[in-house]
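Students often ask why we bother predicting the structure of a whole assembly rather than each chain alone. The short answer is interfaces. A chain on its own may look different once its partners are present, and contacts between molecules only exist in the joint model. In this exercise we take two input lines together and write out one structure for the complete complex. Read the inputs first and try to guess which parts will touch.
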Amino acid sequence: MPQFRLCEESSAAVAARTLGGLAVLTLLALTLMAEAGHWLTGYRIPA
Amino acid sequence: MRTIWLIARHDWRMLRAERTLWAIGLLLAITIGYGVRNGSAWVDFQQRNINGALDEERERIGKMQRDIADLNAGRKGAPSSDPGSPFAAGYTLAARWAVIPPAPLSPLAIGQSDLLPYYFKVSLRSRDTLIGNDEIENPVHLLSGCFDLAFVIIYLYPLVILALGFNLISGGKEDGTLAMTLSQPVRLRTLAAGRILFRGIYVLTLATVLSMAGALLAGVDFSAEGAGVRMLLWTGVVAAYGAFWFALAVAVNALGRSSAANAVALAGAWLLLVLLAPSLLNVTIKSLHPLPSRVEMIQAMRVAGDEVTAQRSKLVAKHLEDHPELVGASQDTMAKLAVRNVAMMERMEDLVQPVLDRFDRQLRLQQALVERYRFLSPAILTQAALYDLAGTDALRYQHFTKRVDAFHKEWRSFFFPLMLKNVKLTE
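Now the answer. The structure tokens for the assembled complex follow.
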């Protein structure tokens, strides 16, 4: 009689997909941080 | 770099004296603990159901094998009907449970696993009857989702970060300490970096250590295939998501407004990115590609059922026309019944198929849009990644349903020839 087999996706494929999202999040954070750093450079203490 | 560490240490001393750090630590510990407990309870429930189904299957098939042996040996107490008949075996006695077990990290994110079926009883009954095995669950619970670790990370964790970061620079400006600090040979950028460094390490350590502790308590098996890598990636995603919210807090602080204005702006950003953007995307996608309603599906099945019953004789005649090799075999009563069942089932499936196809097509279109626009909000991106890592995303469950479909076809192609030839199962 036939038996049910569930061939699951490999963890490597999941990891590859997650790394894509991770890269986008990191890039977003770094861009924001760099931009904020740029704005802070021009900061002057109020007299 | 030394200056940054010096500022971070100083920041730690300053914040330690306040109650904020401890309150945040306690809040995170309670919510993470509660989230993991909920996730763990759900996975236990799923596992219990799966074990129950598989135990029932083992018992049933064991009994069937014993009955066949008793009948063949002519023992006393053998069943009156033949358990070795392919009809009895294929429809009820040997029916198989097809199950998708919870993935190792499932206790961390319930995801779609409470919405999508995780077990099907596969038999010779038509494909549409597979769908009717739903458990009854409160729809309000399903709509609001469960309070699990992924929920804490996506919704509450940014709030904790914003609570620590909204007055990163503005606070010092308002109480006059910023001007005093900047009179030293230190740049504002370095000061902000030092403060972010300490707060970031604090929140991230709390989130990861508490998640790990929760996962261990929930019984996550880290020795399972890929579990270690997935946990590492989970930590990476949590860190990157946290980094985004810290970066946003610094960027808003850099605009030079007051702490109150920063708090309002950051709360607005949280509302927009975490609540509004996913809901808007959801509504837009559902409006662009609506799924056919379940009522429509049930209606189509009823209409098809009536039509098939009314045309029974015609369908059998047509089936025999299409399969002339069955004409001789179909003289036997059981074989006649088999031909009738096959003909009716095939017609029934043909009639319902357009609705199922439309459902699949719309679902694919919806998923393509989510895939494309998930970058609109870091919350959507993070949620997709966490569900994917926990194995509770829709894709894994759809793959399971496809495998069940293939198995159902395989089951039928195994039993139908036996039914037509009226071959008995002997063991």
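Check your guess against this: Chain A is about 65% helix and 0% strand.
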